[in-house]
Design brief:
237 residues; 38% helix; 8 helices; 7-stranded parallel sheet; alpha/beta; TIM Barrel; globular
């Protein structure tokens, strides 16, 4: 990470069963932070409520709630349980005053609707690994959310997403890896890692005719503006 000018990493919780491991890694390094939440793909996760999330979020290294949201691509049928779980996360985010990390796939309409119904704009958050339209991006931005681009934006066939990266206001952009998935070009197909986020930033800079330094500086500032609980660290090799 340091060799690639990546100063901080956010470790995303996707199950409560593995949360202790995520938190332990965040505790090990001053420039690592964690979230608490259950990914919408994990249908068999044991039941939990807002208080469960709140108790786990009451830790100095936990700076966000999620990953949460809706996924109608991988799962089908009656997904009301997914929508109920999403609402639980949003309510926990509001009560803890922590931003939300939102996953949406083939479910943008319902995702935005539930965000509005549950007043997600009260804490804001990030539309993680964004693959939706510019219209969806702007609706999320109007609710105080940032748009985060992953390695997908470097893929040659991601024409529509590249256009979104060109149009979204720079002060609302974040970059991420979604490790260990979605490694950017030139590492596509390999195991992803946080160091590779520099290649995502390079592509965003290229698309916007901006310098890499500008994208790095603005996205870093955006991160700490959103994740208010995080303490910025300075490191050198």
């Amino acid at each position: 990470m340091l060799e690639n000018q990546v100063g901080h990493a956010l470790l995303i919780s996707v199950t409560l069963e593995k949360f202790a491991e995520v938190l332990a890694l965040a505790e090990q390094y001053p420039n690592f932070f964690a979230t608490v939440g259950v990914h919408p793909d994990y249908e068999d996760e044991p039941p939990f409520d807002e208080q469960t999330l709140l108790s786990l979020a009451n830790h100095p290294k936990v700076i966000g709630i999620g990953e949460t949201g809706l996924d109608y691509f991988r799962l089908t049928g009656d997904l009301e349980w997914q929508r109920d779980r999403f609402r639980t996360h949003i309510r926990a985010g509001i009560q803890s005053n922590l931003p939300l990390i939102i996953h949406t796939r083939s479910a943008a309409e319902d995702t935005l609707r539930i965000m509005r119904e549950e007043n997600a704009q009260a804490v804001g958050g990030v539309m993680h690994c964004f693959t939706e339209s510019y219209n969806v991006a702007m609706q999320a931005i109007e609710m105080g959310f940032y748009i985060s681009f992953s390695g997908i934006v470097t893929f040659k066939n991601a024409t529509a997403l590249k256009e979104v990266a060109q149009q979204v206001p720079l002060d609302k952009i974040l970059v991420e890896t979604d490790s260990p998935y979605l490694a950017p070009i030139p590492f596509r197909g390999k195991v992803n890692q946080p160091a590779y986020v520099k290649h995502v930033a390079e592509e965003v800079a290229r698309l916007r005719n901006a310098s890499l330094d500008e994208v790095m500086a603005v996205s870093t500032n955006n991160f700490f503006s959103l994740f208010r609980k995080a303490q910025k660290q300075t490191y050198s090799l």
